[in-house]
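Whether sequence alone determines local backbone shape is best considered at the level of individual chains. For completeness, the protein is quoted in full, as a sequence line and a line of structure tokens:
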Amino acid sequence: MKTVVIDYGSGNLRSAAKALERAARETGVDTAVTVTGDAEALDRADRIVLPGVGAFGDCAAGLRALPGMIDALERNVREVRKPFLGICVGMQLMADRGIEHGAHEGLGWIPGEVRPLAPSDAGLKIPHMGWNIVEPEPDTTHPVLAGFAGGAHAYFVHSYAMVCATGSDVLATADYGGRFATVVGRDNMIGTQFHPEKSQAAGLRLLGDFLRWEGKES
């Protein structure tokens, strides 16, 4: 099996790849993890991971600057329906648009937009940085979230969050002066606002479950 981590100039790629390799070892999944900006590599991949840190617009521009990458993503994720994981800004890019430093077009896979966090408690700092409890939505039994059943801590670094147009696309939330989407998903696509590669046991469990996921919600 082949797992591709897309390199489009965003940071944190190597740590995500190392965490995927560790999760594969610990769960007994035989997969080669490759970090690449080559669009053709997606055609040979079984699973696709899109990490991301930084501003939404910069990440969107970096992704579109890779020759053939948007077409390869559409073909492999939307048409062939290979399992896809977006992490942090990689999750946000699944939305229709982000409004960080102006309006910027996303991939349009999950209807909605990425907006600034606005905690009801003025004492809560932005960016939201550190550990928070991720809780699956009631009746959510997504196989990639098995390790978060009942809630588990995950590590966040962000100032913006996705606001989904369709409630069923929100798979889990956390509270930071108000609840916000921490995991979104539809069909063969799932995204986490937190960093599973920095979330210790729960994060590694999520990555391992993603590597075993067939791309269908239970």
